Amino acid sequence: MEPISRRDALGLGATGLVLSGLVRRSPAASPPTGRTDDDGSRRPFLTPGDDFTDVSRGDPIPHTLQGEALVKARLTPETWRLEVAAEGKAELAKPLRQADGSAIDLASLVKLGETKGVLFLKAMQCNNIAQPLGQGLWEGVPLRDVLRLGGEMKQVRRVYYWGFHNNDPKQMFRSSLAINQVLDAPPGELPPFIAYRLNGGPIPLERGGPVRMIVPWAHGFKSVKWLQQIVLTNDYQANDTYALANNDPESYLKTAAYLDDADEATRPAGETLVIRGTAMVGWPGLARVESWLRRVSRPVVELHDDDPAWATASWRPCDLDPPPVDLAAELPAGVDLARIWGFGPDGRPKEWPLRFSVAPWSASLGGLEPGDYEFRVRTVDRNGFAQPEPRPFAQRSGVNGVQCKRLHITAKA
Ligand SMILES: Nc1nc2c(c(=O)[nH]1)N[C@H]1C(S)=C(S)[C@@H](COP(=O)(O)O)O[C@H]1N2
Ligand SMILES: [Mo]
C-alpha cells in the first residue's frame, strides 16, 4: 500500500500551515521505520524528500518560488552558487565570490564529492518538535574541504552561514559553528557537511536544495536550507537565528522515545495490546527503550515531574526492531552500502541502531485486568542516562519529555 503523504493526510495543502511566516506541518504522523504495520501498511525506512515535515521560514517561503523568481534567487541547479568570505579580523586568502566568478557552483561541488563525498543516514529533528521530521540518506562534502578551496585562513574562530532569504535581512535564517567543530571532528565522528544529494537524487527544493548544510549531530536549525553564504569570523559567539527565543544554540541531538499514537485507547480485557513507536537516536546513542505501565483510578490525575511514583516505577524493556531484513531494498537502487557511514565492508551496519537515525520499537501488553492505565516510554542512552536526564529541563535544548498514553481496559466482551 502506498503510504499517504503527511501533507495529504493533514489536508493542509501545498504550503502547509502558515504561522507568522513559519510553515510548520504537524509532527510526522508516521515516522520512517522500514516495517509493515499491524494494518498491513508499509512504512519506508527513508522518508521521501517531499514527505518530511517542513519547518521553513520566509515570506514567500523560498521553496514556493517558481520560474524566473527561482532563477533570480539562484536556487536552480544551474544558477546556484556558494560564496565563502571572511569578515573583520578573520582572513581568507582567496575568497570565493559571485562577482568575480569564483563562487562554487553545483558541478564543482559534485566533482569534489567524487573524492570527498560521504554518505550518511540522518533523521532531521527540530529542537522544539517531539518526533523526527523525516529520515534521509544524505550525501555531501565535508564543510572543511569546501573551506580549503579558499586557501589559507587566519584568525578564524567561528563559521557563520545562511541561505536565500528573499534579499530581506529580517528573513535571514542563520546558523554557525565553532571552527574546531568544522575542521576537527572527533575520531570516528561525522563532520558538518555541504549536502547535495538526498535518497540518491537531488535535494528537492522543499528540503533546502539544490544545496543545504547538514550538521549530523545537531538539531535541524544548524542544517540551513538553500545555503548560499559562508562567512569566516573572528567572533566567538553564536549568531544563530535559533539563539533567539531562548533556544540553546549549541544543543545536540538527544536520544528520546516517541509514541506513534499517544491518544487514549479503549480495549477489551484478554486482548494482547501492541504499542509501537520510534526512538530518535541522538549523539549519546541508544542502549534500550523501556516502558512503565501504571495502574490509575478515575478521575485520572496528571502525574507531575516531582511525583514520588517516578522513584518506584518499574520499567520493562521494549523490543527494538532489528535492521530491515533487506536493507538494500529500503535504500536507493545502486547505492554501495559499504560506503554509508557506520556500515562495514559487508554492507551491514556495524552497530544498531545507528546514531542520528530512527529506531522503531514495540511493547506487547497482555493479560490486563479491566481498569485504567498509563503507559509511558523512555530511552536509556549509552551513557546510562534515562530520558529526560541528564538535563533536568526538557525544553529549548531538544524536546525529550517522557510521553504517556492512557489505556482504558473494559470487561471481556
Ligand atoms: N533557510 C532555512 N533553513 C532552515 C530553516 C529555515 O526556516 N530556513 N529551518 C530550520 C529548522 S528550525 C529545521 S528543524 C530544519 C527542518 O528541515 P526540513 O524542513 O528539511 O524538515 O531546517 C532548518 N533550516
Ligand atoms: Mo527547528
From TrEMBL:
<dbReference type="GO" id="GO:0043546">
    <property type="term" value="F:molybdopterin cofactor binding"/>
</dbReference>
<dbReference type="InterPro" id="IPR008335">
    <property type="entry name" value="Mopterin_OxRdtase_euk"/>
</dbReference>
<dbReference type="GO" id="GO:0008482">
    <property type="term" value="F:sulfite oxidase activity"/>
</dbReference>
<feature type="region of interest" description="Disordered">
    <location>
        <begin position="21"/>
        <end position="63"/>
    </location>
</feature>
<keyword id="KW-0560">Oxidoreductase</keyword>
<feature type="domain" description="Oxidoreductase molybdopterin-binding">
    <location>
        <begin position="76"/>
        <end position="237"/>
    </location>
</feature>
<dbReference type="Pfam" id="PF00174">
    <property type="entry name" value="Oxidored_molyb"/>
</dbReference>
<protein>
    <submittedName>
        <fullName>Sulfoxide reductase catalytic subunit YedY</fullName>
        <ecNumber>1.8.-.-</ecNumber>
    </submittedName>
</protein>
<dbReference type="InterPro" id="IPR000572">
    <property type="entry name" value="OxRdtase_Mopterin-bd_dom"/>
</dbReference>
<dbReference type="GO" id="GO:0006790">
    <property type="term" value="P:sulfur compound metabolic process"/>
</dbReference>
<dbReference type="GO" id="GO:0020037">
    <property type="term" value="F:heme binding"/>
</dbReference>
<dbReference type="InterPro" id="IPR036374">
    <property type="entry name" value="OxRdtase_Mopterin-bd_sf"/>
</dbReference>
